[in-house]
């Protein structure tokens, strides 16, 4: 179903309007922040299978109060201008909320990647990249795309390569796009980053007793029953980390071609293997020919991680979860949001919940500009210092340091451990700010509005300092 039938952009804009009202933002400034600065539509032909195919792509720049602007490139057959502008706006608010120094942008290519061979996708992507790069809509200091639904490392590597061909002498050319493979200027931990961010976000939520009570939950993530929709990049990684590291029980995975259900917990790695081998969920233990109705089942936490507009005024009344974390962008329409708020359901909003991707993209961009792997300078020096401390303890106590702890204590930081640390820190600080703001003002009725208020304040401060 087309995203625009759910009024994705209208949903985002209405949340903005409600937050701006609480902030008493002057109308002129509110409009300046809210409306997309520009949306570029490109139609281009590619010769494939003995004929010419025409493709449509978009790149929307929502706000360039900070540059570069940042946001994914989605490959989806139903993408349209409304959707791209809504996603670009969310990027502006997300970056402001999480203190990532970027403006907001988003792009899409109207295509179902499953209809094309890899070599064909490469040709199409390279041509799309040329069209965008020609107009500085791919550029290390102006506009930096990343993966989103339907695109991944491969596409980002083709885009980077195409940009580098157009600008062979540009020193910072790798920084033109993020989400690249590590051997093409990428960063360790980027592929998993959004799912990892969902995990860190949930962990931080569980550290806030007051908020936990609002969701009628207690304890930690262990044993909590989770339903997850969408088993792609974001959904798979979130499910994997929450089940393997936090001992949460993933009871249900809702995919495009069916549902996998197991009250005792699905083995996430095995399901992934099955999907890689067969292309779908069919045939896996617990498979059922069913769909989105499973969003309505009993669980502690619901994680929509597929696409926008899946929880609407038609099904919101029947949602049983008391906590929803929006791993996807815009999975709950504005009307559904009101219904869920009325029912007391706690919603951790998309602009926070899925910010792990852009956070680690920011680290990748910084890595590309500094031309050095994180940890390269300090890792062995930290190890040397830690070893001295271990030796001093051994000398002072006359006992040898426990061998099972020795490696852990000694280890210096690797790029991956630094990326995780930076992401964890960003998710903790972001959540604290939202929770504090939510509890500080009785007019603020949801975490979504609290998040939006923080974002608007930061963007308007930035405009203010530009004299706008
Ligand atoms: P993806 O293409 O890797 O995975 C999406 C998955 O959802 C696929 O497995 C697909 O089969 C499934 N799906 C699609 N429609 C469905 C439906 N109606 N019901 C059930 N399953 C369905 O995409 P992704 O990168 O994981 O992105 C998912 C969501 O997360 C999107 O809203 C995206 O904007 C958001 N997001 C992604 C990133 C990122 O880093 N990839 C970052 C931030 C936000």
- According to DSSP, the number of beta strands is 12
Q: Report the uncertain regions.
A: 1-5
Estimate the global geometry from the Cα principal axes.
globular
For the termini, the CA-CA separation is 39 Å
Beta percentage is 15-25%
Bound molecules: nicotinamide-adenine-dinucleotide
Helix content class: 40-55%
Strand order of the largest sheet: 9-8-7-6-10-11-12
For the sheet with most strands, the description reads: 7 strands, mixed
Mean pLDDT figure: 96
* H/E element sequence: HHEEEHEHEHHHEHEEHEEEHEHHHHHH
- Class by alpha and beta content: alpha/beta
- The helix tally amounts to 16
Radius of gyration: 23 Å
State the main characteristics.
binds nicotinamide-adenine-dinucleotide, disordered N terminus, 46% helix, 468 residues, five-stranded mixed sheet, globular, alpha/beta, 12 strands, seven-stranded mixed sheet
Give a structural overview.
The chain is built from 16 helices and twelve strands. α1 packs parallel to α3 and α6 (193-206) crosses α15. The relative contact order is 0.13. The two termini are 39 Å apart. A seven-stranded mixed beta sheet has the order 9-8-7-6-10-11-12, with helices on both faces. α8 links the parallel β6 and β7. The protein has helices spanning 8-23, 27-34, 81-97, 118-134, 153-166, 193-206, 209-214, 233-244, 268-278, 334-343, 350-353, 356-370, 379-397, 403-410, 415-440, 447-465; strands spanning 38-48, 51-63, 69-76, 103-110, 143-147, 225-229, 249-255, 258-261, 287-288, 301-304, 323-325, 346-348. It is of the alpha/beta class. The structure holds nicotinamide-adenine-dinucleotide. Residues 147-150, 194, 229-235, 254-256, 305-307, 327-329, 354, 357 line the site of nicotinamide-adenine-dinucleotide.
């Amino acid at each position: 179903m087309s995203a625009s039938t759910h009024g994705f952009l209208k949903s985002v804009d209405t949340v903005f309007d409600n937050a701006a009202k609480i902030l008493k933002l002057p109308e002129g400034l509110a409009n300046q922040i809210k409306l997309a600065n520009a949306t570029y539509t490109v139609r281009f032909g590619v010769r494939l299978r003995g004929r010419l195919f025409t493709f449509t792509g978009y790149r929307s720049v929502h706000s360039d109060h900070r540059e570069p602007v940042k946001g994914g490139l989605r490959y989806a057959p139903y993408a349209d201008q409304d959707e791209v502008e809504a996603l670009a706006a969310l990027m502006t608010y997300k970056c402001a909320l999480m203190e990532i120094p970027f403006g907001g942008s988003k792009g899409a290519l109207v295509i179902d990647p499953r209809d094309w061979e890899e070599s064909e996708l490469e040709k199409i992507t390279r041509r799309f990249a040329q069209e965008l790069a020609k107009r500085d809509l791919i550029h290390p200091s102006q506009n930096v795309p990343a993966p989103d639904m339907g695109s991944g490392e491969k596409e980002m590597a083709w885009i980077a390569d195409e940009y580098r061909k157009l600008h062979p002498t540009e020193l910072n050319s790798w920084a033109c796009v993020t989400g690249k493979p590590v051997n093409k200027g990428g960063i360790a931990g980027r592929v998993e980053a959004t799912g990892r961010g969902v995990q860190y976000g949930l962990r931080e939520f569980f550290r806030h007793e007051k908020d936990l009570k609002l969701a009628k939950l207690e304890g930690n993530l262990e044993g909590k029953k989770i339903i997850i929709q969408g088993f792609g990049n974001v959904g798979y990684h979130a499910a994997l980390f929450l089940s393997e590291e936090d001992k949460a029980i993933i009871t249900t995975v809702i995919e495009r071609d069916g549902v996998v259900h197991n009250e005792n917990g699905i083995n996430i790695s095995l399901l992934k293997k099955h999907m890689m081998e067969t292309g779908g969920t069919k045939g896996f233990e617990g498979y059922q020919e069913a769909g989105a109705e499973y969003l309505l089942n009993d669980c502690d936490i619901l994680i929509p991680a597929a696409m926008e507009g899946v929880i609407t005024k038609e099904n919101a009344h029947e949602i049983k979860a008391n906590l929803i974390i929006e791993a996807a962008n815009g999975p709950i329409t504005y009307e559904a949001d009101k219904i869920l708020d009325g029912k007391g359901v706690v919603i951790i909003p998309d602009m926070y919940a899925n910010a792990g991707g852009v956070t680690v993209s920011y680290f990748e961009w910084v890595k590309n500009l500094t031309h050095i792997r994180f940890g390269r300078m300090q890792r062995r020096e930290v190890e040397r210092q830690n070893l001295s401390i271990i030796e001093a303890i051994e000398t002072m106590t006359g006992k040898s340091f426990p061998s099972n702890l020795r490696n852990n204590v000694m280890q210096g930081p690797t790029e991956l451990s630094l990326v995780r640390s930076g992401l964890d820190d960003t998710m903790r600080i972001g959540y604290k700010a939202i929770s504090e703001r939510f509890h500080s003002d009785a007019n603020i009725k949801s975490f979504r509005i609290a998040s939006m208020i923080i974002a608007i304040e930061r963007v308007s401060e930035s405009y203010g300092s530009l004299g706008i």
